[in-house]
Amino acid sequence: MKIAALVSGGVDSSVVVHQLKEQGYDPTIFYIRIGMEDKDGYIDCPAEEDIEITSYIAKKYGCKFEIVSLHEEYWENVVSYTIEAVKRGLTPNPDMMCNKMIKFGCFEQNWGHEFDKIATGHYATTTELNDKTWLSTAADHVKDQTYFLGQINYMQVSKLMFPIGHLQKSEVRAIAAQQGLPSALRKDSQGICFLGKINYNDFIGRYLGERPGKIVELETGKILGKHNGYWYHTIGQRKGLGLSGGPWFVIKKDIKRNIIYVSNGYDPDTQYGKVVNLAGFSFITEDIWGDFEGTRDITFKVRHTPEFTRGKIEKIGDIYRIQSEEKIQGIAAGQFGVVYDEESRLCLGSGVIADETAE
Ligand SMILES: Nc1ncnc2c1ncn2[C@@H]1O[C@H](COP(=O)(O)OP(=O)(O)OP(=O)(O)O)[C@@H](O)[C@H]1O
């Protein structure tokens, strides 16, 4: 079997190579350049150290190694999506878009199609059920990364391999240490790769500039201060509002009037909700419900968290509506809602949290 292993130089994907070799495979290693260092030299993804480590891993295990570039594709698919979403007042998820469009999209079209499988260091597993492949959760429920994979399609999931998905993170680190891999002690990456070392606000500022507006207390309508543009603020955000007498939380944004609404207190009720409307829902493997009346029991996530929340899902026209059992904090339009079966074992699919304020 021909396997392409996507290796970033981090501990997880380094151990992927070890695991594959142990299983008797001879993967070709690919490092993808996806930072933005060629755009005016502004956004700098720290690629060189990663490449050095990946190259060391390739040598150690005697694997073919290719460095490929998807800079432009990354810009067109992920960065522009991020800027567009933020401009519309939404909360984007660049990492999910990167998996769907870059790692398993453009990579497949350019190089992956020559291989039988693509292996990554994601904490996830696949399950064969009813002659089909299903994305399923990792043995390490805290590290589980299926949330970030919730947008992939059937073609993609049936080609993927997650050689460390059945291990705990501590076991992965132990293997790396035992094998003397240089990545053993590296810190986990923090996502949003293209930002590299630059500050998120600088990045947004560069593309969207400033548009000063009011910060208003939701409950009283009192003007509390000024912000530099609604795109600098996200629902659920607590830090960086520059208001005294806090904590303050961003609860709502009025894009048309450029107003940020905030609530005060350590745990204001206004930051919670129980209903999540998902638009453009797509199933990864298959639509297991079809058109249905009433509700189905599920678990779900509205962001990458260790916990799965229980809820019921119903279909209302094109919208899938989740009624959560527990109140959930910071339901932000634009983020993805990822839906799992009742046991939080199979990842079924995802949709975008709808903007309730849009007309
Ligand atoms: N630049 C890259 N080139 C090739 N593959 C990559 C790259 N970045 C990430 N990947 C792949 O995607 C997986 C998940 O990426 P993520 O950014 O979540 O890294 P991570 O969880 O810190 O894993 P790692 O420790 O391998 O970096 C990685 O394990 C690797 O297989």
UniProtKB/TrEMBL annotation:
Q: What superkingdom does the record give?
A: Bacteria
Per its record, the protein catalyses: S-sulfanyl-L-cysteinyl-[protein] + uridine(34) in tRNA + AH2 + ATP = 2-thiouridine(34) in tRNA + L-cysteinyl-[protein] + A + AMP + diphosphate + H(+)
Active-site positions on this chain: 98 (nucleophile), 193 (cysteine persulfide intermediate)
Q: What EC identifiers does the entry list?
A: 2.8.1.13
Stretch list, region Interaction with target base in tRNA: 93-95
Residues of the tRNA-specific 2-thiouridylase MnmA-like central domain: 201-263
For this chain, one GO molecular function annotation is: tRNA-uridine 2-sulfurtransferase activity
SUPFAM superfamilies referenced in this protein's UniProt entry, alphabetically:
Adenine nucleotide alpha hydrolases-like
| GO CC annotation terms, alphabetical | cytoplasm
Q: Positions of the region Interaction with tRNA?
A: 143-145
Mind telling me which residues the site (Interaction with tRNA) is annotated on? 122, 335
**In this protein, which residues make up the domain named tRNA-specific 2-thiouridylase MnmA-like C-terminal?**
294-353
Q: What class of enzyme is it?
A: transferase
Q: Which residues bind ATP?
A: 6-13, 32, 121
Protein location: Cytoplasm
Q: Which processes are annotated in GO (biological process)?
A: tRNA modification
Q: Name the UniProt key words of this record, in alphabetical order.
A: ATP-binding, Cytoplasm, Disulfide bond, Nucleotide-binding, RNA-binding, Transferase, tRNA processing, tRNA-binding
User: What family does the database annotate?
Assistant: Belongs to the MnmA/TRMU family.
Q: Which HAMAP family match?
A: tRNA_thiouridyl_MnmA
Biological role stated in the UniProt entry: Catalyzes the 2-thiolation of uridine at the wobble position (U34) of tRNA, leading to the formation of s(2)U34.
Name of the featured protein: tRNA-specific 2-thiouridylase MnmA
